[in-house]
Amino acid sequence: MTKALKDPKTRIFVLFPALDQIPNSPSNQRQIIVTAFGFSALQTTLSNFNDGFMEVAAIWTAAIIVSRIPNSRAYVWRSIHHPSFGWVLSIEFLP
Fold first, then answer.
1. Distance in angstroms (rounded) separating the CA atoms of residues 56 and 9
2. Residue 55: which of 18, 84, 92 has the closest Cα?
3. Are the C-beta atoms of 25 and 88 separated by less than 8 Å?
4. Beta-strand (E) ranges in the chain?
5. How far apart are CA 69 and CA 17, in angstroms?
6. Tens digit of pLDDT per residue, the chain (95 long)?
7. String of DSSP letters for 12-31
């Protein structure tokens, strides 16, 4: 058990799902913010349609790139999650 916990691969397997949940935070906060401006539940839902479409398009594009370029999974994962890190930084540091 201790050997498995000391293995760097195990730590990476734990880190990836933790980082993968970062995009969920801004989308949840966006719903709260849009509703606070006085928009209805339907208008808030419709405004989130674009985010969902872009997420599906990004995943589809990533799958195509990874299937055609060998050994590119880590690079593609990082490039797709790069905007999410920007969201987190903007929420944390902007006034």
1. 28
2. 84
3. yes
4. none
5. 23
6. 677 777 787 777 777 777 766 666 666 677 777 778 888 888 877 777 777 787 788 888 888 998 999 888 888 877 777 766 676 677 778 76
7. HHHHHHHHHTTTHHHHHHHH
